Amino acid sequence: MAWRRTTLTGAVVGVLAGRQAVVEGPRPLAVLAVALAGLVWLALLAVGQRRIRALAAPRPPALSPRAAVAAAGCAALLGVLGVGMLW
Amino acid sequence: MTSRDARSSAGQAPGGPGRGREGAPAGRRGRWRAARAEVGLWWAPAQVRAEGQTPDYRFSLANERTFLAWLRTALALIGGGFAVDQFLPDQDRPLRTVLAIALLVGGALCALRAVNHWLRCERAMRRGDDLPISRFPTVLALAVGLMSVVMVLVVALGGAG
Q1: Pick the residue with more confidence: B18 or A59?
Q2: 3-state SS of chain A: helix, strand, coil percent to 5?
Q3: For chain B, which ranges sit under pLDDT 50?
Q4: Which of A20, A66, A77 sits opposite B85 (nearest CB)?
Q5: What is the pLDDT of residue B50?
Q6: Domain locations in chain B?
Q7: Residue B60: its chain A contacts at CB < 8 A?
Q8: Which of A3, A70, A84 shows the shortest CA–CA distance to A37?
Q9: Residue B11: its pLDDT value, please?
Q10: A8 confidence band (pLDDT: 50, 70, 90)
Q11: Do the chains contact at B78 and A82, CB–CB below 8 Å?
Q12: Does pLDDT of A49 surpass 70?
């Protein structure tokens, strides 16, 4: 459930990023940043889905540092792309 | 056994003898080296799992949920950055951009801190150490409060002007 909530929050950020590009007018850099934000969100979704499947066990294994870094990296990248869009 | 140790250490009052980064070298250079070692651990799951004993899986899951809650906080800050830029159209562009970028950068840093704190907690549980304490929640709360006050003033004064 926590992973689903997190990917949903990421989706909201992605929608806001898309809206930013539409409001500002379709500049090539902004469109590229939105496309990248979409890919980053898909990566977050993939990490989340993989972990959700791993959690469906009586004694689930601990989260691996790589998955944690990937999820946090996706969130950080969304922030960096946002800065790129506003710049 | 391990789980009981982890639980008892988690419940200890801060300021106990085992508090802080035990064994970390003192001084700025030592702190820098410790931070570099921690970032190195992000990419080395085997190294983390080689330390200490596997804690009760329920503690690891609780740590994971806390990590995800921090990640959502980071994403909320990033979303707030976009929202400030989009929903305050009457304000000066430079001021709006500064506020938005502050939130976006803050969100990115919050995400990186989330993974670092998760790893430190995981390692402390494996070793049976006290859980790491941090000033970050206080700093974040003060920064968000300050930013809210600034935004209220900006909107109020902008509306009055």
Answers
A1: A59
A2: 85, 0, 15
A3: 1-24
A4: A20
A5: 76
A6: 25-160
A7: 62-63
A8: A84
A9: 38
A10: very high
A11: yes
A12: yes
C-alpha closest to that of B121 among B45, B59, B31: B59
| Helix B57-87 × helix A2-24 angle, to 10° | 20
**Which of B44, B86, B112 lies closest to A76 in CB terms?**
B112
Distance (Å, whole) CA A74 – CA A86: 19
CA distance B138 to B146: 12
Please tell me whether residue B45 adopts helix, strand or coil conformation: helix
The 3-class SS string of chain B reads CHHHHHHHHHCCCCCCCCCCCCCCCCHHHHHHHHHHHHHHHHCCHHHHHHCCCCCCHHHHHHHHHHHHHHHHHHHHHHHHHHHHHHHCCCCCHHHHHHHHHHHHHHHHHHHHHHHHHHHHHHHHHHHCCCCCCCCHHHHHHHHHHHHHHHHHHHHHHHHHC
Which chain A residue is nearest to residue B126, measuring alpha carbons? Answer: A62
- Residues in chain A within 8 Å Cβ distance of B108: 75-80
What residues of B are in contact with residue A41 (Cβ under 8 Å)?
none
Quick check: A79 and B85 CB within 8 A?
no
Number of inter-chain CB pairs under 8 A, A vs B: 120
pLDDT-derived band at A76, boundaries 50, 70, 90: very high
**CA of A59, closest CA in chain B: separation in Å?**
7
